[in-house]
């Protein structure tokens, strides 16, 4: 079974890009491609988990496990801990855990839907970032199991920058993204860079979308530099 380690392994940096958008011609897909190009251009070995394209199952259930801790009552954390100790995850979950275990950098590319991540990305966290594998009691935030690694959110919105400002309709973008940035990414111990947000990406002109992609590529290169690449 894959195991997480905070120790920096020798050799080039490795990255995992987890992509959550169903349309391969979307702006978020362009963000994914730009991220991969920037990472590989910086010498980072890169793997992509394209959750929609790979048919990743979003719903956590007993189907996640080849082992059973308690046949009479399903408690997700108990089953995850048991599977972590007995190599009991099904292949889809194990594959994603192995990808994450190899990665020094974790990048998430997704659209903001209903104020949060798409269900398939939330399901990736629910199923893959399992108790006993990615966190345990006393192993969160600064003592998390992914300390020594770096994370970055790449987000597109339908709303404008003004709409995502303090006192306007949706509130400050930092507040909107807090559950993802703080309670998911930083929770694991990752050194999380400030999120990159492409505001109103479906509604702006081509030149502004191109500028977003240039800015995003630089943010990815900055992440590599921060990780020592």
What can you see in these coordinates?
- This protein has 6 helices and 6 strands, in the order E-H-E-H-H-E-H-E-H-E-E-H.
- With 229 residues, the protein is α/β, with parallel strands linked by helices.
- Strands 1, 2, 3, 4, 5 and 6 form a 6-stranded parallel β-sheet that branches.
- The radius of gyration is 18 Å and the shape is globular.
What is the element layout, followed by pairings?
Layout: E1 14-19, H1 27-41, E2 45-50, H2 76-86, H3 91-102, E3 105-111, H4 119-128, E4 150-156, H5 173-185, E5 191-192, E6 196-198, H6 206-226
Parallel strand pairs: 1-2, 1-3, 3-4, 4-5, 4-6
Helix pairs in contact: 1-6
GO molecular function, one term: oxidoreductase activity
Pfam families: Flavodoxin_2 (PF02525)
Keywords: Oxidoreductase
Sum this structure up briefly.
The chain is α/β, with parallel strands linked by helices. It contains six helices and six strands, in the order βαβααβαβαββα.
What is the structural class?
alpha/beta
Largest sheet: 6 strands, parallel
> What ranges have pLDDT less than 50 throughout 5 or more consecutive residues?
none
In whole angstroms, the N-to-C terminal distance is 27 Å
The H/E string reads EHEHHEHEHEEH
What is the share of helical residues? 25-40%
Strand content: 5-15%
Mean pLDDT: 95
CA-atom Rg in angstroms = 18 Å
Principal-axes geometry comes out as globular
Count of extended strands:
6
Number of helical segments?
Answer: 6
């Amino acid at each position: 079974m894959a195991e997480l380690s905070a120790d920096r392994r020798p050799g080039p940096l490795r990255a995992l890009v987890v992509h959550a958008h169903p349309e391969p011609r979307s702006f978020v897909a362009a963000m994914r491609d730009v991220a991969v190009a920037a990472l590989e251009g910086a010498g980072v070995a890169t793997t992509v988990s394209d959750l929609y394209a790979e048919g990743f199952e979003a719903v956590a259930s007993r189907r996640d496990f080849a082992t059973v801790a308690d046949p009479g009552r399903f408690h997700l954390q108990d089953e995850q801990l048991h599977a972590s100790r007995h190599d009991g995850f099904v292949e889809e979950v194990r594959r994603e855990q192995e990808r994450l275990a190899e990665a020094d950098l974790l990048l998430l590319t997704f659209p903001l839907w209903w104020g949060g991540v798409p269900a398939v990305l939330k399901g990736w966290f629910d199923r893959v970032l399992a108790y006993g594998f990615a966190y345990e009691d006393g192993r969160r935030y600064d003592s998390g199991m992914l300390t020594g690694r770096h994370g970055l959110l790449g987000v597109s919105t339908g709303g404008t920058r003004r709409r995502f400002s303090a006192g306007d309709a949706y509130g400050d973008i930092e507040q909107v993204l807090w559950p993802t940035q703080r309670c998911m990414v930083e929770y694991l111990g990752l050194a999380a860079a400030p999120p990159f947000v492409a505001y109103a990406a479906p509604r702006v002109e081509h030149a502004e979308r191109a500028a977003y992609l240039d800015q995003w590529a630089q943010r990815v290169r900055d992440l590599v530099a921060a990780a020592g690449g």
